[in-house]
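Page 37, continued from 36.
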């Protein structure tokens, strides 16, 4: 049921989506820098990397060799930094090779996004930053739909001058 499966986000105070109309504009960089800045200010921060075709945040935070583990309430995110102050979940942790391509059709991608939203044990966070895929696709609709019942603070739209 919804109430049973959605308790993993109850300790998250604010959710920020990071979006763009096209790829290569720096969404993942913005997510990473924002998470580091919020952490520097003393906030508890998580990053949910749902950019399934280009999960670059594990590499940016130098944790691409880590694995996620299961606990009673779902997946345990990877904790980043000397103080383990940033929680990170990414499909990059689920691939055999970090550079493996994810070639999935919509339903499978959407199911994984929903699973990331409901089945990651985030604990208490001040901010959860969601790195979305480029463009406007089913994955965005799935992400917003899955997050609809939570405290969605807003969205950051990353663009370039052209």
């Amino acid at each position: 049921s919804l109430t049973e499966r959605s308790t993993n986000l109850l300790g998250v105070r604010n959710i920020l989506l990071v979006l763009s109309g096209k790829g290569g504009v720096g969404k993942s960089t913005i997510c990473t820098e924002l998470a580091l800045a919020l952490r520097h200010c003393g906030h508890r921060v998580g990053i949910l990397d749902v950019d399934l075709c280009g999960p670059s945040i594990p590499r940016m935070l130098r944790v691409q060799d880590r694995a996620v583990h299961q606990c009673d309430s779902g997946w345990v995110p990877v904790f980043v930094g000397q103080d383990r102050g940033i929680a990170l979940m990414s499909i990059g942790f689920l691939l055999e090779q970090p550079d493996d391509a994810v070639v999935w059709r919509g339903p499978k991608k959407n199911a994984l996004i929903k699973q990331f939203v409901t089945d990651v044990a985030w604990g208490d966070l001040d901010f959860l930053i969601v790195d979305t895929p480029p463009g406007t696709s089913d994955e965005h609709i799935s992400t917003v739909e899955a997050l609809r019942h939570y405290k969605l603070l807003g969205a950051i739209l990353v663009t370039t001058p052209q």
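Confidence is low (pLDDT under 50) at residues 1-5. Flag for discussion at group meeting. The radius of gyration is 15 Å.
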